[in-house]
Amino acid sequence: MHRQERLRFARELYAVHSQIFSGVSFERFVSHVLEPTAECTKIQVYRDFAGKLVGYCAFHRFAREFDGRRTIVLRAEAGLLPKYRGKAIAHWFGMLGALKEKLRHPFLHVIYFGTLVHPSSYRFFCKYFPDVFPRHGAEALPTTFRTAIELAESFGDPTVDPRDPLIREVGWITKNTLEHPALISDDALYDIHYFETRNPGYSKGHGLVVMVPVTFSNVGQAIITRVTEAILGWIRRRPARL
Question: d(Cα 7, Cα 111) in Å, to the nearest integer?
Answer without folding.
Answer: 31
